[in-house]
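Weekly puzzle thread! Below is a chain. First person to post its structure in token form gets bragging rights.
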Amino acid sequence: MGAALLTLTAVTHQIKKTVSPSPSYAQEESRLRALPASTDTYISLGILYATYDAFEKALQAFQQALELDPANDLAHIWLGNIYIKLNRLAEAQTLFEERLSTDPADASGLAGLGRVAYSRGEYDKAEKLFIEAGATFDLGKLYRVLGRFKESEKVFLDAIKDKSTDTSLLMGLGYLYVHSDRLPEAEETFLKAVAINPKDEIAQGGLGDTYRRMGRYDDAFTAFAKAQEINPDADIFTGLGDLYMELGRFEEAEKVFLRGLEVNPKAERYNGLGNVYRMMKRYEDAKAMYRKAIEINPAIISVLPLARILIEENNHEAAEKLLLTARDTPNWQEAQSMLSEISISSTR
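Winning reply:
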């Protein structure tokens, strides 16, 4: 059942058990594609694609795994999670409800429905399902997103008592400390994860991001460099790009984000590049990047800076329409503030 409760946030810890260590995306894809077609091969491909947010490819891989082994439990669970990532929530709900129809206590089914509820903004329902499923990582993340930091911390700390070497839990706790501005504790937590697995590029990246926020820029560069030594395609592009941007080195930041987009066109990287272009006053380029990010992930924070540019251009109608799409997302409170700003401006 442990595999059943894997989240896509913690997927890189699973992928290291199923594929060769620290390969580039292209190298690993080629290696797996060269293997004989089998359920395990397709599952490994699906996990690889999920790691790099290539969710359509992941969907196809898990479907191919199920064609060969319709009863494969792991492929079913991953398929449900991929549906969620693709915002195909009705299909995900049906899949997880089918699991619960045969076993109402099935933890993966309960956790899956919790993720569906979370994606719909039904946080109370998600909380109840995560608790019933024992889905520690999901519950801790939910509390963090809701700003319930003390509860999130308790969830992670209690889980770590039983699984002290689980680096995914340490990562969850570390990022909780980052988001609650408890940076010395974040540093300590990421260092624990690095001590457990020095080859974990994600932990190194978390450490780099912590140092960036602490203003310890040399240490941040060192941590990011270590992550890239482990894996040249390590997912540190956003942290490193933000670091260059904070230092006013916008051209270097642009190169980092562009390189990250070559490796994998993630929404957060388009958002980061949009931020760079906004700082460089390249507003048309910034708007294009923000729109790319929103196209991939409608709930991303890019909605806010894009709306801000539109407001500054006196395109209030477009800004209002955009901000209304933030309803039921973590951006809604700030979006409401900006909508009020537009309303006040329109009455003058």
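Puzzle host: Confirmed. Bonus trivia for everyone else. Residues 236-297 form a domain with the Serine Threonine Protein Phosphatase 5, Tetratricopeptide repeat fold (CATH 1.25.40.10).
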